[in-house]
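Lab notebook, page 48
Experiment: co-folding of the full assembly
Goal: obtain a model of how the components sit together before planning crosslinking
Operator: M.T.
Materials (sequences as entered):
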Amino acid sequence: MTGTNPFLGAQEALYGGSDRLAQRTTALHAAKVRGRPVAEVISELVDPGGTRGIVVDVGCGRGSTTAHLARSWNPRSLTALDRSPALLAAARRRLPPEAQASLVCADFHALPLAESSVDVVVAAFCLYHSPHPRQVVAEFARCLRRGGQAVLVTKSADSYRELDELVAAAGLDPHAPQRRSLYETFHSGNAAATVAAHLDLCAVVDHQHVFGFRDAEHTARYLTTTPKYALTSDQAAVADRLRPLIGQTGVTATSTVSYLVARRR
Ligand SMILES: C[S@@+](CC[C@H](N)C(=O)[O-])C[C@H]1O[C@@H](n2cnc3c(N)ncnc32)[C@H](O)[C@@H]1O
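Observation: model returned without errors.
Model output:
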């Protein structure tokens, strides 16, 4: 494996503003050809009775999952928590005013929440940003009331490996297939053991997601937001290198999305 993992440590370049994450998410959503919307699946995995209570969406990002949960669960209290002030500001704009959600800027390794005070914790696509995800799960266990539930979502370590091969073949980053998985600390293969260290694991659900990037421009829009590769941020230059390989046919990439449902003992 090559290089350090840019998903660990400082993430200012990734999450310091909301534009880069918006570009990444929009390009990925536009490519989706198979796989259910993640927020919808999360909202179905937890017993609706439990969600009338106190819900915290950890690592909420731009708040799209939080907004869905506000509407489908209509919880008594909803907190959107993230380390990035810029993403919290974007989440504030997205959340329905009637949800009266609290936005909290904090690090998930030390949640500013009282012991046994939360009914449901949601953490989607964020624990792989921790070098010590067990510590974060221990925090969830501390904050959840007895019987309270957590839904954690992550991806397989080999997600989008087809793009690694494309990036290398295009000469954009010859080491792309050897670079470490962005999801190495918390992925579909190790997440269950991590969660079970502090919570009772109730269910693991795996969904295959398939993405069809339609042409060189679309693929470049996504790739230039991927911190895994040593790439220029010049989208047009990246698209020029991809065009001879994928022309107008595009490229297909896959990822397994894993949902882990757990309860506090
Ligand atoms: C890929 S985004 C996920 C956003 C959202 N949960 C979703 O599913 O769309 C990862 C989020 O984790 C947040 N994050 C990363 N490290 C964090 C930490 N130590 N404490 C709190 N949030 C963190 C980032 O700021 C970012 O908003």
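Interpretation: Residues 105 and 198 are 24 Å apart (CA to CA).
Next step: discuss with group before ordering constructs.
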